[in-house]
Amino acid sequence: MTSVLRLPIAEHSHQLDSPEFAALLDTLTAEFSATAEQHDRDGSFPHRNFERLHELGLLGLTVPRALGGLGANLAQTTRVIAAVARGEPSTALVLTMQYLHHASGRGARWPQHLLHRVTDETLRDGALINALRVEPELGTPARGGLPGTIARRTPEGWRISGRKIYSTGIPRLTWLAVWARSDDAEPLVGSWLVRHDTPGITINETWDHLGMRATGSHEVVFDDVLVPLDNAVDVSPASAAPELDASLLLWMSVLLAAIYDAVARNARDWLASWLEDRVPANLGAPLSSLPRFQESLGQLDAWLFSSRVILDAAANGAVPPSDAFRIKYLVTNTAIQVVEKAIELSGNPGLSRANPLERHYRDVLCSRIHTPQNDTILINSGRAAFAARAAAKKASPAGVAGISTITAKDAS
Predict the structure, then answer these.
(1) Which helix (H) or strand (E) is 327 found in, with range?
(2) Average pLDDT of span 240-254
(3) Which of 198, 208, 228, 349 has the fewest beta carbons closer than 10 A?
């Protein structure tokens, strides 16, 4: 394959929008598909997939152009994630975390030497970065609370101790953004930047999950890990209101949704092929010849069409960031519905370990655990709706209620 950086660029366009790039993504999907079953079977991390992504220049897809990256927009990034997920969704999830970090702009607040070091290692060496936030006692920080991981201020730097679980991509991460709190009287809370090879870090290979088994989301233990003082790259007093980047929430929702939409499309394709190949003796013709199955496949395609419309609209700026989490809710729940319908139609064959549909089902169910979960999305949506109605009644004697959206503040 040709590196993306060497693809032809048409006048007034980007190489990421070229037919050549679309063909490259199709080839990448097929390549990753060839080993997806084995990675799922043994829970192995897909190192070769990331080597290929680096060879193609795709690990720096969302690194700003000013820093040497491709500076991809959300629509371009979504196409890449969807293509990778069609091949191997665990790879796509790790890649999504990488893309979100570099697209966030949070590095602009970092010391310049750290920003350039992380960026240069990404582009030159294929370095990966992700945030390590979830802890055994606290669970997901989205539900509130302070981290148990402690950063102690010492004359030689910060010494970090704590334990993280669900550390997605840890077998290949170079940089860890560790969510912790300082030992100050009024603690600082936020991210400390830690390189993976710093002494005192232990990886316990605990990840043995139902789905997305190749993400390598193991437990990581920090035992008095020393980092320089300026590696407290994104911290603020615990009493301060969290800063939420609404545009980044939109990116997160779209990219996560695109992963599981891709899994559902794989399930749909498996079912269509199975219906074409399955010829019961009492029928003497493929199941695809029966109106019942034709109607069912049409239903799946209609569901997937609705998801595609939502994702395309959001990726191209037609959906406000305030509706970000509704995108995740609608698309991921539709994806589960598609795969479950495919299983219903195929019966026992669809649940056999010999068929990909069983793997797609386990993978798509993992869409429910990504922050924010469905209950949070719907509760905040309902609260926002009632708040808008109350405000409208107060402002209008007629009591006309307005239409509401989830705000970034509500979503937190």
Answers:
(1) helix 324-346
(2) 88
(3) 208
The answer to whether 20 touches 86, Cβ cutoff 8 Å, is no
Q: Assess contact for 263 and 339: CB atoms under 8 A.
A: yes
Q: What gap in Å lies between CA 311 and CA 303, rounded to an integer?
A: 13
Cα 328 to Cα 312: distance, rounded to the nearest angstrom? 13
> In this predicted model, what pLDDT tens digit does every residue of 285-339 receive, in sequence order?
999 999 999 999 999 999 999 999 999 999 999 999 999 999 999 999 999 999 9
Report CA Rg, the chain: 23
CA torsion sign, 140 to 142 to 147 to 148?
A: negative
Query: What is the 8-class DSSP label of residue 281?
Result: T
pLDDT in tens, 285-299: 999 999 999 999 999
Q: What is the pLDDT of residues 95-116, one digit of tens each?
A: 999 999 999 887 778 999 999 9
Helix residue spans in 2-141 (DSSP H): 19-42, 47-55, 74-87, 89-103, 112-125
198 DSSP assignment? S
Residues with Cβ within 8 Å of 220's Cβ and at least 6 positions away in sequence, in order, are: 132, 163, 164, 167, 170, 176, 201, 202, 203, 204
AA identity, residue 401: A
Dihedral of the alpha carbons of 324, 329, 334, 335, in degrees to the nearest 10: 80
- Quote the DSSP letter at residue 393: H
Determine phi and psi for 405, rounding to 5 degrees: -135, 160
According to DSSP, residue 4 is labeled G
Can you spell out the DSSP letters for 328-357?
HHHHHHHHHHHHHHHHHHH-GGGGSTTSHH
Distance from C-alpha of 357 to C-alpha of 268, rounded to nearest angstrom? 9
**Whole-structure pTM value:** 0.92
Q: How many CB atoms sit inside 10 A of residue 39's CB?
A: 22
